[in-house]
Design a protein that fits this description.
Layout: H1 8-18, E1 21-26, H2 33-46, E2 50-53, H3 58-61, H4 71-82, E3 86-90, H5 98-103, H6 130-147, E4 153-157, H7 169-183, H8 186-193, H9 220-247, E5 254-255, E6 257-258, H10 267-270, E7 278-280, H11 290-304, E8 310-314, H12 331-343, E9 346-351, H13 377-391, E10 404-407, H14 410-417, H15 428-440, E11 446-449, E12 460-463, H16 471-482, E13 486-489, H17 512-515, E14 517-524, E15 530-534, E16 547-558, E17 562-567, E18 576-583, E19 586-591, E20 593-595, H18 597-607, E21 625-630, E22 633-638, E23 649-652, E24 657-659, E25 669-672, E26 677-682
Parallel strand pairs: 1-2, 1-9, 2-3, 3-4, 4-5, 6-7, 7-8, 8-9, 10-11, 10-12, 12-13, 13-19
Antiparallel strand pairs: 14-16, 15-16, 15-17, 16-20, 17-18, 18-19, 21-22, 22-26, 23-25, 24-26
The structure holds alpha-D-galactopyranose.
Alpha-D-galactopyranose (GLA) is lined by residues 160-161, 280, 282, 314, 320, 322, 352, 362, 365.
C-alpha cells in the first residue's frame, strides 16, 4: 500500500482491540512530574484508554535550533504505557518555537492587510514557507524515528486544526505555482477569472498576488481559487508530515483533527488522506438548536469517511473559554453529547483537555480534571462516561444506514459566499443546517454528500443551496430522481459554474428539465418577510398566508411543475414559490425562496413521507428527542434540557429490548428522562 493512501483497517484494528476510545489531549509539560503520576492514576479510574500527547511541545523538544529533548517524553510515554493507556502522539508542528520566527521571519504568516503575525499565541507559521516546512519535517522525522515502535503509541496526530491563511510573499510564490498547475496558460486563467472585467487582464502568472486588501470588490474567482489553494497548501503540509511518520516505520493510524463545517479546508478533498476522520466539536450550550446543529456535523464526518466510524477528537467537558460568554455543560449534558456522537458513528470520544491549565490563554477552558481537582461533579461525570462507553463496546464498527442525503460541497459554499450578490444574507451552512433539522426531528438518518456522488441509492436527496452545479452534479441529481428519489432543491441553486461564472440562461441552469420550473431573475425580498399562499388542494381564502418567505425569492414560471404555493404579496406576488414535478420514477420539488421553518419542515416532511423511521409510528419525534439506529442499536437521546424546562418523553418501542447502558429490559413504553440516553438492543450475549 502506498504511504499516501488511507488505510482504514488500522483504526478498525485499534478499536477492535481497545473498544470505544476515551480520553483527552494531555499536556504534561505544563505540570511537575509528581502530577503526572496522579494523572495516570486518575486516567485509570476513569477508564481512559487514549491520550493525545505533544500537540504543543515543539519548544520543549527543540529548545534551540537543532537540539532534541526527548527524555521527558520518554518518561511520559513510559508512565502511560505501564498503566495500559494508549497514546495518540502528535507532531508538535502547529506551534513553532519563538526562535523560528525570530531567525526566519518569512515563516510567520501575513494577513490580508500585510500585517505579519508574531509568536506569543500559536499557529504562527505560513504553510508555504520552505523553512517552516523543513523545520517541521525535521522534528517530525526524529519524533517518528524515536517512537514509531513504542508500545504506548496507538495513533499519530499531525499538527492541530489546520486552518492558517497566509497572504504574504511566500504564499504569493506558491499561489502562482498552484495557478500555473491548474490553468497551464495565463490566457486560460484570464478566461476562468473573467479578467476582461475591470481591466484585470494579466500577461504573466508573476503579476498575480493573493487577494490582499484591495481598493474595492475582489474578483470572486480569484478569491475562490485562493481558498482552494490555501486548503491544498495546508493539505500538502499534512501529507508530508504523515509520509515522514510512515517512512519512519510507524504502523499506527495517522490522522489530524478537523473542525466541522470549516471554511478554510475542503475536508472532502482531505478525507482520503487520513486513516480515520477525526473532528473537534464545540456545540454552543447557549443555543437551543445545538443538538440538531452538531448532528449535521457528525453526519458530515461519518459521510466523509464513507460511513466508517470516526473519532470525536476534541470537545469540552464543561465550558469553553473562547466564546464571549461560555455557558458550562452539566455532567449529564456532557455525557449526552458524547453518546450522541457514538450514536452518529463515532468509535472514539475524546476531549480538550485532560487537566485544566493554570496559566496561558486557555486557563478557564474546562478539562476532565478541573482546577478544583478530582473531587468534583465534573470528574465524577467523566468516570461515569468512561463506564458507559465500555458498555457500548457492542456498537464498535457498526454503521448508520441512511436513506436520505443532503448535498454540500466546499467549492459551492465558497463561491456563494463571495460578496456583491443579490443578498449577503443567504448563508449556505445556515440553510443546510435548517434543512437537516427537518430530518433530525423525524429521526431520518442522512448522509452529507458531494453533489457529484452516486445518489441513486437514496430515496430522498436535499440540495438546500447548491450555488455551483456543473454537468456532473446535474447528472447525478437527475439520476437520483430518475431512479425514483424525491429531490428537493432550494433557492439560488444552479447559478454558476466551478469558476463562479453565472450561467447566462434561466435558472436553475442544468436542472430546469428535472424540476420543471425556471427563473428569470433572483429577487431580494423586503423585510421582514412576504406571505406565502398555499395553492395545493383546498385553496385557502384569497390572501390567507400559510407561512412566509424572506431573504431571497425567484421570479419563476412553471414549465410543467405543479405549483404548491405562491407569493401572497410583495414584488413576486402571484408567482410560484414552491413547486413539485413528477419526473421519471421520482419527484423533484423546488423551493424558489427562503421559506420559514414551518413551511420548510412541511415540504421536507411531504418529500420524506415514504422513508421508514427508526421508531415505527412516529412521523415527528417528541420535542427534543433524537433517535438514531446504529447497527442493531437504537439510540434514544433526550435533549430536552431540564434547565430550560425539558421533560421526560415516552415513546413506544418493540417490547423486550435491553438497554446496553443499564441492562434493563424495556417494556413497550420507554421513558427517557431529560439529558438521558437509552441504547436499546435485542437481547444477546454480551
Ligand atoms: C481546539 C484546539 C485545542 C484547544 C481547544 C479549546 O480543540 O485543538 O488546542 O484550543 O480548541 O476549545
Amino acid at each position: 500500500m502506498s504511504p499516501t493512501t488511507r488505510d482504514t483497517g488500522r483504526f478498525d484494528a485499534l478499536t477492535a482491540d481497545a473498544g470505544i476510545l476515551f480520553g483527552a489531549d494531555y499536556n504534561p509539560e505544563q505540570w511537575p512530574r509528581e502530577v503526572w503520576v496522579d494523572d495516570v492514576a486518575l486516567m485509570r479510574e476513569a477508564g481512559v484508554n487514549l491520550v493525545t500527547v505533544g500537540v504543543f511541545s515543539w519548544a520543549m523538544i527543540e529548545p534551540e535550533p537543532g537540539a532534541r529533548e526527548f527524555g521527558w517524553l520518554d518518561d511520559v510515554l513510559g508512565l502511560l504505557h505501564e498503566a495500559g493507556i494508549g497514546v495518540d502522539l502528535a507532531t508538535p508542528t502547529a506551534s513553532p518555537p519563538p526562535w523560528l520566527g525570530v531567525r526566519h521571519p518569512e515563516t510567520l504568516p501575513v494577513d490580508r492587510d500585510g500585517v505579519r503575525l508574531i509568536a506569543g499565541s500559536r499557529n504562527q507559521f505560513t504553510p508555504a514557507s520552505r523553512v517552516y516546512r523543513e523545520a517541521a519535517l525535521a522534528v517530525t522525522g526524529d519524533l517518528a524515528a524515536r517512537y514509531a515502535g513504542h508500545p504506548a503509541v496507538r495513533m499519530w496526530h499531525v499538527g492541530n486544526e489546520f486552518g492558517q491563511l497566509d497572504y504574504g510573499d511566500e504564499a504569493a510564490r506558491e499561489f502562482r505555482a498552484w495557478l500555473r498547475a491548474r490553468y497551464g496558460t495565463i490566457e486560460a486563467l484570464g478566461e476562468a477569472w473573467g479578467t476582461a472585467f475591470w481591466s484585470q487582464r494579466y500577461s504573466d502568472f508573476d503579476e498575480i498576488l493573493p487577494p490582499r486588501r484591495m481598493p474595492y470588490l475582489v474578483n470572486p474567482a480569484q478569491s475562490v481559487d485562493f481558498r482552494r489553494y490555501s486548503s491544498d497548501q495546508l493539505r500538502a503540509v499534512f501529507r508530508e508530515q504523515r509520509d515522514a511518520i510512515r517512512a519512519a516505520g510507524a504502523a499506527q493510524p495517522i490522522t489530524t483533527n478537523f473542525m466541522g463545517v470549516f471554511a478554510h479546508a475542503d475536508y472532502r478533498s482531505w478525507a482520503d488522506d487520513v486513516d480515520v476522520i477525526a473532528d473537534d466539536q464545540y456545540p454552543d450550550q447557549a443555543s437551543p438548536t445545538a443538538p440538531a446543529d452538531i448532528a449535521l456535523v457528525q453526519d458530515l464526518m461519518r459521510s466523509l469517511g464513507g460511513g466508517r466510524p470516526w473519532l470525536l477528537m476534541e470537545q469540552a467537558v464543561s465550558a469553553t473559554s473562547w466564546r464571549p460568554h461560555n455557558l458550562p455543560k452539566s455532567p449529564a449534558r456532557a455525557r449526552l453529547d458524547s453518546l450522541q456522537a457514538v450514536a452518529r458513528g463515532a468509535d472514539g470520544i475524546c476531549f480538550f483537555q485532560w487537566r485544566q491549565s493554570r496559566s496561558g490563554a486557555e486557563r478557564f477552558h474546562s478539562a476532565l480534571v478541573p482546577h478544583a481537582g478530582a473531587d468534583t461533579d465534573v470528574f465524577r461525570g467523566v468516570v461515569r462516561q468512561g463506564a458507559d462507553l465500555q458498555r457500548l463496546r457492542p456498537v464498535v464498527g457498526a454503521r448508520v444506514q441512511a436513506d436520505a442525503a443532503i448535498v454540500f460541497d466546499w467549492a459551492s459554499w465558497w463561491a456563494s459566499s463571495e460578496s456583491a450578490a443579490p443578498t449577503d444574507r443567504l448563508d449556505t451552512v445556515a440553510e443546510i443546517t435548517r434543512w437537516h433539522r427537518a430530518l433530525w426531528r423525524r429521526g431520518i438518518a442522512v448522509d452529507v454528500v458531494a453533489p457529484t456522488a452516486d445518489l441513486t441509492g437514496y430515496r430522498l436527496v436535499l440540495a438546500p443551496h447548491s450555488y455551483v452545479i456543473e454537468q456532473d452534479a446535474a447528472a447525478a441529481l437527475t439520476a437520483a430522481v430518475t431512479a425514483g428519489a424525491d429531490l428537493v432543491v432550494g433557492p439560488f441553486s444552479g447559478v454558476a459554474d466551478a469558476n463562479g461564472a453565472v450561467y447566462a440562461e434561466r435558472s436553475p441552469a442544468l436542472l430546469r428539465e428535472v424540476v420543471g420550473v425556471s427563473g428569470e431573475q433572483w429577487c431580494a425580498l423586503p423585510d421582514p418577510s412576504v406571505p406565502l399562499v398555499w395553492t395545493d388542494g383546498a385553496e385557502p381564502a384569497a390572501g390567507v398566508s400559510v407561512g412566509t418567505a424572506s431573504i431571497l425569492g425567484e421570479q419563476l414560471r412553471s414549465e410543467g411543475a405543479h405549483v404548491l404555493a405562491r407569493y401572497g404579496a410583495g414584488p413576486l406576488q402571484g408567482r410560484p414559490a414552491i413547486t413539485r414535478h413528477p419526473y421519471a420514477a421520482g419527484t423533484a420539488w423546488y423551493l424558489g425562496a427562503v421559506v420559514d421553518d414551518a413551511v420548510l419542515d412541511d415540504v421536507i416532511g411531504r418529500a420524506a413521507a415514504s422513508i421508514d423511521r427508526p421508531l415505527a409510528g412516529y412521523d415527528l419525534l417528541p420535542d427534543g428527542l433524537e433517535v438514531v439506529r446504529r447497527g442493531e442499536a437504537l439510540f434514544l437521546l433526550n435533549h430536552g434540557d431540564p434547565r430550560r424546562g425539558g421533560e421526560a418523553v415516552e415513546v413506544t418501542v418493540p417490547a423486550g429490548l435491553v438497554d446496553l447502558l443499564t441492562d434493563e429490559v424495556s417494556g413497550e413504553v420507554v421513558a427517557i428522562a431529560p439529558d438521558d440516553v437509552k441504547v436499546l438492543i435485542e437481547r444477546q450475549d454480551r
